[in-house]
Amino acid sequence: MKLTFSAEDERFREEIAGWLKENLCGEFEHLKFRGGPGDEHMFPEERKRWEQKLAEGNWVGIGLPQEYGGRGASIEQQVIFAEEYARAGAPGRIGHIGEGLTAPTLIAFGSQEQKEKYLPGILKGTEFWCQGYSEPSAGSDLANVRTRAVQDPTTGQWRITGQKIWTSLAHESDWCFVIARTDPDSVAHRGLGFFLVKMDQPQITVCPIEQLTGTSEFNEVFFDGAVADDIVGQPGEGWSIAMGLLGFERGVSTLGQQMQFQNELNEIIRIAKENGSAQDSVIRQRIAEAHTGLRLMRYNAMRMLSQDERSGPDSSALVYKLHWSTWHRHLGALAMDVLGPEAEMIDSAPYNLTRLQSLFLFTRSDTIYGGTSQIQRNIIAERGLGMPKEAKGR
């Protein structure tokens, strides 16, 4: 595990830090620290323009191979980018699904024609993607997917019918990758396909889901015979491609996520010093525990990434989701206790939640989405520790 960076890496750090300082200003100044979890609904058009600004500087897809338009940056440089991006308070990436999930999946599993068709829009920051995985009966249990894909025997076109849920920024997306069942008689992870579907068609309806925060970055998406432009791989290979994609989700972006957590912790510490709650011995201990937990999270992520680079992830990667989601939920509660009575008040109309109020409410969902804590513990027990599988029916 590498905990230090080379002289070349540090020059790269200076380059991205300098670029952010020069460009995250003017029309983009108000985007600082916006667009993160619980705030993803804010300034979508401005953040799309910011994606194009990043693309102009060749900062989109820096980890992708140069032959596909990326920079071919090392793991260390990708970590540096994620850290400096968050340290500068740059806005939540509205293109992260396309850049971080769609692009590497296409490079790993897609045809040459598919790479040529979809990668340029992602790398230019002009086409945005959402993820069509979860369904009302298939959240953590992705293998229970019921959305169907039927191929027209005359045209060869695939048509998608079904429902997806908790689809982040579907209303702002141009494309969606969709897991659907190609074999109606199949069960579990067999008989699935991985489809690329254009969102702007009359056979797709997007309905917002209002949350505790009063925002609606999540959506239900209904497919009523929607046309799929492409299938990645072959029918029946959807599960292996979907699992490959989820492997990319646990990548370098975890370090950027941790810098966002650090920004939140810094804000909590600032308020604790200002309002005097830092003098409370229990609050001080909780802040120290939050700091310690975040450092442990960083070292575990660095170890995980180092192992990915050499031989693929091992069981240490299984604990990451459970660790960060539980830690972040506790941080939200700490924020409210530091604020004290102000945590339950909003100054004036239009009565928007403050940054820390939104943090507290949104972190209620951290231990649910992306795999509930209960499911994650089963995964750790069964895959990481080799324990017997949980008995069915309990």
UniProtKB/TrEMBL annotation:
Cofactor names: FAD
Signal peptide: none
Entry-linked Pfam families: Acyl-CoA_dh_1, Acyl-CoA_dh_M, Acyl-CoA_dh_N
Location of the Acyl-CoA dehydrogenase/oxidase N-terminal domain: 7-125
PANTHER family in the record: ACYL-COA DEHYDROGENASE, ACYL-COA DEHYDROGENASE FADE29
Family classification: Belongs to the acyl-CoA dehydrogenase family.
Protein name (Swiss-Prot/TrEMBL): Acyl-CoA dehydrogenase family protein
